[in-house]
Fold Ubiquitin-hydrolase Zn-finger-containing protein.
Amino acid sequence: MTETPGIDSTVPPSGTGCVECLAADGWWFHLRRCAECGHIGCCDSSPEQHASRHAAESGHQIVRSFEPGEDWFWHYGESEYYNGPELAPPAAHPENQPVPGGNVPTGWQGKLHR
C-alpha cells in the first residue's frame, strides 16, 4: 500500500460524535474525521467548527466525511476535494445517531453557519 502524506489509514476514529462538543455538552450538524489522527470534529456549518479548528491547530489538513453514505475527503490547505484511501472502520457515525447530534437546542437551524 502506498502511503499518502497526511493520511494514516490505520487510525480508527476518536468516537461517534464531535470530541469537543461532547466534552462541553454542545451539539453539531455534520461530522468530519481527521484522516491523520482520527479526531472527530463538527463541520463548518456547525456553531463551533471544531474540525477546521483541529486542522488549523494540529496542521492535519485532510478530513473525510464521517456521515453515513459519504466517502469524500477535503484538504483544508488546498481548499478542494481530495482522493484518499479507505480508512480504518467505522467509516461513519452509526446510522441511528440523530443529525444534528449532541445536546441540540430549540431553533438549531438558525444557529448554523451558511
